[in-house]
Amino acid sequence: MGALLDVSGLNKVYEGSGRRVEAVRDLTFTVESGELVCLVGPSGCGKTTLLKCVGGLLAPTAGQVTLSGRPVSGPPPGMAFVFQEYGRSLFPWMRVGDNVELPLKQKGLSKSRRGELVDDALRSVGLADAAGAYPWQLSGGMQQRVAIARALAYEPEILLMDEPFAAVDAQTRADLEDLVRGLWRERGITILFVTHDIDEAVYLGERVLVLSGSPTVVRERLRIDLPAERDQLHTRVAPRFAELRTHVYEQIQAAKRGTPAPEPSDRIVDVEDRPVDKS
Amino acid sequence: MTRFLLRLAFVVALPLFLLGLWWLASDDSTNPFWPPLRTILTTFPDVWTSERLRADVLPSVLRLSAGYAVAAVAGVAVGTVIGSYRRVRALCEPVLEFLRAIPAPVLIPVIMLFAGIGDTMKITVIASGCVWPILLNTVEGVRAVDPVMAETARSYGITGAARLRNVVLRSASPQIFAGLRQALSIAIILMVISEMFAASNGLGFTIVQFQRGFAVPDMWTGILVLGLLGFALSVVFQLVERRVLGWYHGLRASARRSP
Ligand SMILES: Nc1ncnc2c1ncn2[C@@H]1O[C@H](COP(=O)(O)OP(=O)(O)OP(=O)(O)O)[C@@H](O)[C@H]1O
Ligand SMILES: [Mg+2]
User: Fold this and answer.
1) What is the residue range of A5's domain?
2) Do the domain assignments include residue A233?
3) What sign does the dihedral A258-A262-A268-A269 (CA atoms) show?
4) CATH of the domain at B208
């Protein structure tokens, strides 16, 4: 058995009303079980498109996605999605608890098991006492935490997150990043996290895939060799963090200018330890 | 408590004022078709005895409820199908526009040919007039389901009946209720008109009977009863709506607070 998620030669062309947009040209990558992989790319480079193809919500024009060896042709039961637009992803006519429970009902779980999962998921995102509230009674960051709880309760093999924190304020965002990393370490879930924010990608990921601008290919694969224990205060000022983010930044800038990638794009790059500038 | 009294005062102030105006304006009226309100009110308890309420108001209310219920079920069901499929919509839209443009009262003679002059005819007339606002609003509501919510449902495997019940109909419910509200006033109008055509009991029938017998104050009391009936129905409707659409009013209020 190979990787948990295998994306090969993925291509997506939107056709319609005389316009032809090649959103994703040729993407190949894998995600191993238990990994936290970040995809980072400039705005509009097809990140959402890619993730929807992976999640079976969009049919790719060419290429294949397989999850645990089975090709994905519709939303597979082992996948949960956290969307960019949290405000429109929760159902406003249901209370928080019912929002988290609905997918579990659909799975056919017993009432007691559902109750356990809902309580546990809400507790791990710190919203144990919000089950009776409506989503619109909560702040943006809390709503996104409900969406994360819904995904957790679903017990997916892989969690897909599409710029989940793009629309919340900086402080909330930092908290949510720590929440995701904490959940990943505690529960050993597999996460594919998409973002346009370089710092976020480097801070969260164990591996970062840098995407080029549209038409999109994987420009570079980068292993993030920061310690597993990360925190907002120290990790972000660590010299290694600065090197990694600078490297990713340069890659994205080069991608925008259209310079070819320095390394063959199917090998994992380890950034050489450059001497830290002491001036 | 004071807030409740204040609200109550706001609710009853204008009706009381208008009644007072009517009372004063009609007080010394000698016109037989425009009797003093005093006369109308003293006639009221004599005319609307419990016997008459059972014999005339109850059948009317039952016909109205039956016609309205048929329209609601048919309108929501057909509207959901039309709203869900683009092809069906393209096929049905011109026909719907045509059918909707026909005023239901002109159908009464036609419906009488098929359904006779009994309750079936009246229920059919009420239903055929009420169904349009419900149907068209349902179509719009079902079409307008947020694409992100639809994709969320799909990604969690919420499909078929569960999707209809938990996502599509709930999301369309504010629009559906707007249609139901419009349909309610149409239902009352059609109830009265259908009973004026051919009937042996009912509110519409009774009012016409009084008018033909020159029992003018009695006729006016009938109109008051109709008004009260309409008011009562709209209060009930509001109570139901407040329960079902509580989330929607809350959502709108919270969107107003933080745009
Ligand atoms: N349904 C669609 N039809 C046609 N073109 C589309 C459609 N969806 C996206 N596109 C195009 O595909 C490209 C990639 O869009 P996508 O939303 O995947 O980018 P993104 O990286 O997620 O952007 P953002 O960072 O703004 O979220 C864009 O050029 C966009 O215009
Ligand atoms: Mg996007």
Assistant:
1) 1-28+56-66
2) no
3) negative
4) 1.10.3720.10
Pocket lining: A75 vs ligand 1, CB cutoff 6 Å: no
Whether residue B46 lies inside any domain: the answer is no
A93·B247 Cβ contact <8 A: yes
CA of A3 to the centre of ligand 2 (A): 25
* Segments forming the whole domain that contains residue B125: 56-257
A134-168 tens-digit pLDDT: 999 999 899 999 999 999 999 999 999 999 998 88
Rounded CA gap, A207 and A202, in Å? Answer: 8
- Whether B251 is in a domain gets the answer yes
Q: Is B117 on the interface with A (CB under 8 A)?
A: no
Number of domains in chain A: 1
Note whether A91 contacts B166, CB cutoff 8 Å: yes
A167 lines ligand 1 (CB under 6 A): no
- How many domains does the structure of chain B reveal? 1
How would DSSP label each residue in A127-179? -GGGTTS-GGGS-HHHHHHHHHHHHHHT--SEEEEESTTTTS-HHHHHHHHHH
* ipTM rounded to 2 decimals: 0.87
What digits encode the pLDDT tens for the residues B25-83? 988 888 888 888 999 999 999 889 888 888 899 999 999 999 999 999 999 999 999 99
Q: What gap in Å lies between CA A185 and CA B216, rounded to an integer?
A: 84
pTM: 0.88
